[in-house]
Amino acid sequence: MRERDKRPNSKQAGIPGKVCLALLFAALTAGLCLLLNFLLVDDIHSYSRVMLEEYYAESETVDTVFVGSSHCYRSIDPRLVDEALGTHSFNLGTSQQLPDGSYYLIREAGENSPLKTVYLETFYTGYSQTESKAVPLACFLITDYLRPTSMNRYQYLWEMGGPAAFADLIFPARHMIATPDELLELWRAKLTDGYTPGNYAYVTYEGEEAYQGRGFVYTWGTPPYGFGSIADVDPQAPVSEFGAEYLQRIADYCAQQGIRLVMFTAPLPSAYLADTEGYQYYVDYMKAFAAKNGSEYWDFSLWRDTGTFSPGFEDYSDAHHLNGQGAERFTRVFCRVAAAREVGEDVNVFFFDRVEDKLTQAPDATITYAAETAGQ
């Protein structure tokens, strides 16, 4: 009997060709995405990009991080912190940062730095959000610039938006596209000095705001519309389930890693507090959470000693963000509390327990401004 013909059949012969075509298609797609990202994505003007690049460059010596929303990166200047406390601190604040973003940035810092202390900024509206995917840009402002090797990057994306979120990782122009009139300047910057470490020219806006290193953004200007509140606090749920989940995950991670966790709220104007219904419920929740988890909560909106710190109209850039002048004043006050804590003092004496007491006994200067401008 003759041997069978051992030549591969046509289907088998076509498999290597199909694999090659698939690889070619993938390579062409990746190349096209890279080209379009270069042409369309404006990451030159991103505070988050510059901040995280600087953090990674210094990460091996960073022992203290500040994490939170724009109220974090516009309120705390790490250079003043280090001068006062002898630390090597870094501000990891990002715009609209939500509790899950804070959690993953703390993990990233814990995995890359000899971290001793985390100061978690907790502006109340971020902790009332019901889900991360309601503000996807808050996630992308972080994940776009975490290291490609960081597992926190991919876990955060997955928890925020599932498989669909990875489309923005591959093609960030979906959420960060430059306008046509900006393209020529954008291309010039990318081809010259746009990515040069230490070059802050593209994150400086004269007379408005400027990135000044280690995560801090200095802001000029005063509130254009007074101190009206942007949101009240729900007495039944001062912190959402989403906020509570990630707050607990943050506390658990810090405890497991032996990292001291301090939660704080940058000073809200007394005029703003007076216009925010239910804020006491938020304060009570955070203080109870801190006590339960062996942490601390400092709300500088309830600062007692107006002789040492009483921010006024000239210290805010809008209804609830400090400007650069206010941030420098506040950073020094923050360091005073942190230094007292380091030597074992009871820092609760610096703060009122109740909003009502703050507003009736020691309101800041914004109350006077609000009264003078009422009805105008």
Could you characterize what this model shows?
The protein is α/β, with parallel strands linked by helices. The protein has one domain: Rossmann fold (3-Layer(aba) Sandwich), CATH 3.40.50.1110. It has 15 helices and 8 strands. The strands form 2 sheets. The chain has a 5-stranded parallel beta sheet, with helices on both faces. A 3-stranded antiparallel beta sheet has the order 4-5-6. A hairpin with a 5-residue loop joins strand 5 and strand 6. Helix 4 runs parallel beside helix 13 and helix 5 runs antiparallel to helix 7. The longest helix has 31 residues. The N and C termini lie far apart (107 Å). The model has no long low-confidence stretch (mean pLDDT 91).
Notable characteristics:
8 strands, Rossmann fold, 376 residues, alpha/beta, globular, 5-stranded parallel β-sheet
| Helical run tally | 15
* CATH fold description: Rossmann fold
Q: Provide the structure class.
A: alpha/beta
**Gyration radius, rounded:** 25 Å
Q: Tell me the total number of β-strands.
A: 8
Q: Helices and strands, in N-to-C order?
A: HHEHHEHEHHHHEEEHEHHEHHH
Give the termini distance in whole angstroms. Answer: 107 Å
In CATH, the homologous superfamily goes by the name SGNH hydrolase
The total number of structural domains is: 1
**Percent of residues in helices:** 40-55%
Main β-sheet, spatial strand arrangement: 2-1-3-7-8
Regions with little confidence, pLDDT below 50 for 5+ residues: none
- How much of the sequence lies in strands comes to 5-15%
Q: Give the overall silhouette.
A: globular
The overall average pLDDT, rounded, is: 91
